[in-house]
Amino acid sequence: MEIFIGGDLNKKLITEAVKTVNNLSKDIGGNLLSGQEMRVVEYLQIQRSILDALEDKLAAAGDFKAEQSLEKALKAVSGKMDAMTPFNPAIAAESLQSWDERGVSLPSLVDRQQA
After folding, report:
1. What is the pTM assigned to this prediction?
2. What distance in Å separates the CA atoms of residue 33 and residue 46, rounded to the nearest whole number?
3. Rounded mean pLDDT of 48-54?
4. How far, in Å, CA of 47 to CA of 69, rounded?
5. Which domain of life is it from (predicted)?
């Protein structure tokens, strides 16, 4: 499948989407290791909305509605994050230790060179 990205605006929008999804992946890793399962689910839902809009944008080369949908998904991220289940620090230390004992740490999940 060949994908035409087109002009600078399209490239900027797609780059923003990819960076946002990458950053959400890091947040998902941290929340998973610290026992915040509900937050992981919420992050995955946010991530999925961006990926769905990005996929539509790439498939609909030049379709303005698909571009607007991606822009809308990206703009909605901060509002959705503000509405997420609060982080529960009471369970974080125990969960982090449990994962560490299994050889999994946050740096191993989020550091680019580890991937």
Report:
1. 0.81
2. 19
3. 95
4. 14
5. Bacteria
